[in-house]
Amino acid sequence: MYIDTLLSEADWLITEEDYHPEKNQFYETLFTLANGYVGARGSLEQGSQTGSPGTYFAGVYDPTPVFFTELANAPNWLNVKIVANNESIELEKGRILEYKRTLDMKKGLLTQIFRWEGAKGQITRFEDYRLVHLNYKHVALLKGVIVPENYDGPFVVKSGLNGYVFNTGVIEQLLIKHFKLTEYEDREAEGIYLEMKSRLSGISVGEASKLKLSVPSERSVEIDVDKITEVLTFEAKKGQAYEFEKYVTFYTSRDVEDVKFHTLKELNTRVDQGSEVLLREHVSAWEQKWLDVDVKIHGDEVAQRSLRFNIFHLIQSANEDDDRVSIPAKALHGEGYRGHIFWDTEIFMLPFFIYTNPRAARSLLMYRYHNLDAARENARIQGYKGAQFPWESADTGLETTPKELGNPLTGETVRIWTGEEEHHIVADVAYAVDHYYVATGDEQFLLKYGAEILLETARFWASRVQYDDRKKAYVIKKVIGPDEFHEHVDNNIYTNYMAKWNISKALEYIDRLKQKHTDSWDKLKKKIVLSSREIREWETIANNLYLPYDEKTKLYEEFEGYFKLKEIDISGVDSTGLEKIVKDTKWIKQADVVMLHYLLGDYFDQETKKVNFHYYKRWTTHSSSLSPSIYAIMGIEVGNYRDVYQDFIRSTRIDLDDEQGNTSIGIHAASLGGAWQVAINGFAGMRIKNGMLSFKPWLPEKWEKLEFKVKWWGETLNVAITHETVELKLETTDPTRTVEVNIGQKVWRIKGGETCVISVCSQ
Amino acid sequence: MYIDTLLSEADWLITEEDYHPEKNQFYETLFTLANGYVGARGSLEQGSQTGSPGTYFAGVYDPTPVFFTELANAPNWLNVKIVANNESIELEKGRILEYKRTLDMKKGLLTQIFRWEGAKGQITRFEDYRLVHLNYKHVALLKGVIVPENYDGPFVVKSGLNGYVFNTGVIEQLLIKHFKLTEYEDREAEGIYLEMKSRLSGISVGEASKLKLSVPSERSVEIDVDKITEVLTFEAKKGQAYEFEKYVTFYTSRDVEDVKFHTLKELNTRVDQGSEVLLREHVSAWEQKWLDVDVKIHGDEVAQRSLRFNIFHLIQSANEDDDRVSIPAKALHGEGYRGHIFWDTEIFMLPFFIYTNPRAARSLLMYRYHNLDAARENARIQGYKGAQFPWESADTGLETTPKELGNPLTGETVRIWTGEEEHHIVADVAYAVDHYYVATGDEQFLLKYGAEILLETARFWASRVQYDDRKKAYVIKKVIGPDEFHEHVDNNIYTNYMAKWNISKALEYIDRLKQKHTDSWDKLKKKIVLSSREIREWETIANNLYLPYDEKTKLYEEFEGYFKLKEIDISGVDSTGLEKIVKDTKWIKQADVVMLHYLLGDYFDQETKKVNFHYYKRWTTHSSSLSPSIYAIMGIEVGNYRDVYQDFIRSTRIDLDDEQGNTSIGIHAASLGGAWQVAINGFAGMRIKNGMLSFKPWLPEKWEKLEFKVKWWGETLNVAITHETVELKLETTDPTRTVEVNIGQKVWRIKGGETCVISVCSQ
């Protein structure tokens, strides 16, 4: 009656239609609201017995057993509870007469509506929305109405800041309390304040809130262990609607020195502005954002809504203003992987930001640059040179992959080797740097930061390889490739190829710097103490890296010995059983050779890609959420369309359908980016060819049109694809500004002010 | 004004005079109320930011990392909070105008009084008492008054059952949540109910409570995660006193099948009885109890109150009705040592129960008997025979000593060897069985249970020793004696002597059984499959156990090589530094040789005891709370009185003065028993000589009289000792019942109805 009028059209909405307590944690992840600075899981404001509330500030890590460090669960500010005529409203008790929660992705709102009947027959209607402000990153707001439908009586509304929260430990029963109370204060007319400090990293988090009602009320404040609650009481009359607003602000000592001062000042400012203004500015910021990032699929509402879900959470996860944080594998949406950062960011998510928000992409890469010294230290520890980016990264940039995972109760343990062996991450970061530079032309970034990453990673590989006398080539032994089913393998082709690429690319940039940016080159050479001898060594290595390829079959062997592995039947084996039996078989976890053929597409001919796609598709279990998207893209590239649409839908709905069964512990952030890539790099067939954008579209039959924008060297290109045409337009009307695009082996120069419609048949 | 009138005389009271939040956990231990079935730490009913509430049900263990299993912290029922005229009463905010908490040991009550002024100048007086019922073990009660001294306004009283509680893990920051919610229910007029189940051991705990006020009020119920709260609201008038009562009941699935039914039924019954009756019966139960157990010290109020503190907590810790639990090292008072059971029970606490409440003593020994199969399994695992009682024992009787203690955050670890090496516990249990039998004459226990323990422990030792060809004797290698500073030592004299005693005592009991209880002997022999050959082997071992003794110096070497250790200066080294540097020195943690001379006093001549006392006293750091009491007793025995009084006071006040700095995590239960032993076995000089009680008193100068009772073979002997006389009287007036007592090398036969005054000078 009130909230529903706020909502956008159906293809922007994700809805929870009934209340199932056992699904609370699943919806908490789907309904997480975030702005890159803070993420708040979509827990019920009323609390529940089954939920797992989480409030995570990007970069606020604290040491923890086994996992080294983790995003620390900060005080929960969602808390709004109602006691209606002496009856506490508890969804899990009484009768739910109506219930709906809706995530409005267009406006960045989460709404809740319910009608609830208590034991005494009292019926109460509750409606509210919440937002985590997209413009004002230190602000959140909850607003709603409560209606006692068939009774009068005293109403109590309680609004808490609750620091009695924990991270889940190695096993669910081990809870870790990262924050210690340092201060709470009843600020009376100004609201309430809670400040806590992370135990070992010593980061203070201040939270303030103010509860307002549309009617006069009595105010009091309750204190519990690590919790402060503002309580407003008034006499409610049957049938009348009472409005409440909860303003929340937060700062951490990562942002400002005087946390309390800023948190309270921000609260006063926002309360003065009022909820109407805050809502309007938030919605308009989101609508503005969508203008740049939306990917419109005409003719397929499920695909449309699902894809938007992925884009929505990508936007929520990055903070372009903070270049010391990156996006964790589960984003700010849950505690899976403990807030650690993997190649997921650079290879899966980063392209979305490169083409829609290059500033955010740059920030993500700067996170790696700031951790370059730590990467050097990682290399030194493992006995290598250069910079070795860690498989799992957090605040310090040192390796944070757990060595062993186990149940401390039962004593069962599994040794984790990825931190010691999954070295391809080093080349993946270098790849991302090159990708960003090629698509943006951000010379300043390249010279000041990017080149150093490219060279130091190349240097790592030069120290990582070893010369094999029998093979007469440089080999890379004992690694884990993207396919994590096989550990301690030699010459994983993905790793070897990316290493070679990394070194070659470094040499290429050295040449360019030498020629065009002598000053920068001299400075960099001196800084990293790089000699001509070392550069010659790199050349030798790059030219002689072991990259076996069977000319006859055109097959790349994923790693040495792969072809001799067993071919067993795994139908009927469940996912947990799988990992135990696949070690000696051909079954692979995810795209590996196929991934390589995607990333370094120019290095392989069409037939090779096709043959390998066919071969490895048969053995891929897609046990990783990073897999279906890559197979969808490459399926289109090699003309194997059979499973493309299904793989696309699967990758857009990994979380919506809880496909991996663990959405409850956070979103699959890599897959968010993967889904976007299927749309853009798959269906639109976008690639970079010789430094130029190219498109080679293929649309599912029922799609009428695919529309999106990409940023390219400072320009914004509008792309609309139908089965017959590709329509291109620059956002600028300035005819001197142009973008060259390759379609159908032909170069088209798009000028500002012109619309260029290219027939796909003309290819 | 209300509560103070309840209190007993000063020498029964322990008082907290001011509120210091940082001392909350210390007082929580001192003020724990328990009845052997349940223990509730003395946390503030109002809650606090610094407290660590604990509710432990004896025997309710649940698996936990590192420590195997632990007493699981159950829902906290203390919770009573007040919102006075919209201002939440928080001791830590506002001004405390008056504050006192008092433990009344005579009546088993904890009282609290405070006057508190809030920010608005409202002054509220609060007074209450709480009890954990001594008769009705499933019942607790809180009762008090609240007075708004200078204001009118709405009063809200909240009474919760709070399952949002945790055990502290390996490090403070790791919290373990053992209980999962299974049910909560608003029973309306009947109160509220909460039921939770321990995660892995699957034990249900039901708690119910009802809040009553002296005035009509509005009632509502609040639900939070794992918490249910009854809320009563009324309009309070200035200056008026409002009475509240909180009735609490609890059952676990260890006690009854239908936990909910019993918990609610008990609640109804107790509410119907009313608080007056419950209080009266509780106080009278305590007064009755004290008649049997009080030790009166005339002329020394500090000693009197301190000693009573020890006795009070001993009484609180045992449950004579449950012979499947024993008393943990920190009793039911805190989480130190995780609720595990050590030799502390048999050697330090048990004597108190043997002589004051033999039924409770028997229950404690039955706990060991019920775990005899587990002890056999422990022996088997370690490669031995017979029964090896574990160094740390919990619910299953299997070894629960952590193998390694460390900080999972820093990775620092310390290997713990006691579980593998501190084998003397096996003989200590056997010693306790013999002690109980000799003092009670409980033939039925001996035949059905005790003998089996004695024989199976002897059998353990026979498998544990090895023959040393050079020494021509049986040796025991690689043990830890009571002095835990020295690990992996050979031939610890305490261990060797106790092992020899254990085997010899078993052989003695075999002879007695053969002669007097042929049936029992035949049964037992068959049950444990004991052959004559094995018995002959035991004889050989007992006669040839290596017990080196220097006839000239009369010194026993604590273990092989001890005399050659370094003599370093440790003045100025703090307690944590100590453990690291003492390994290669003569410094010992606690009485070891001196302990042996106490326990097996008859085996050593007076001069030997004296020489060894002098020698080892010099090197004893008393780093264990188990040490000063033994030195006090033996100081009296060997006539070295200098430190006796001080060691006695120290042992009575280990917790009162937080002498070890860790009272916050639980009471030092062994020391409770040690303090009692100093009074009885030290000052009164009580021993068993040739199966007869003997006394050899020595009183500190300022003491006028020492009075106590001891149970002996079913009789109760009243003992009153002055500097000149020992006065003995039986509790019975039946002249046919007698007890023989040895005083001054003479046997006195005490008859029912007679008072026998023996001049100490006549010795």
Counting DSSP E segments of at least 2 residues, the number of strands of chain A comes to 34
Q: Give start-end ranges of low-pLDDT stretches of chain A.
A: none
CATH fold descriptor of the domain at 4-292 in chain A: Beta-galactosidase, Chain A, domain 5
The radius of gyration of chain A is 27 Å
Global mean pLDDT of chain A: 95
How many helices of chain A? The count is 19
The percent range for strand residues of chain A is: 25-35%
Q: What's the CATH class of the domain at 4-292 in chain A, please? A: Mainly Beta
Q: Overall 3D geometry of chain A? A: globular
Return the structural class of chain A. alpha+beta
Q: What is the end-to-end distance of chain A?
A: 54 Å
What portion of residues of chain A is helical?
Answer: 25-40%
Assigned CATH superfamily of the domain at 4-292 in chain A: Glycoside hydrolase, family 65, N-terminal domain
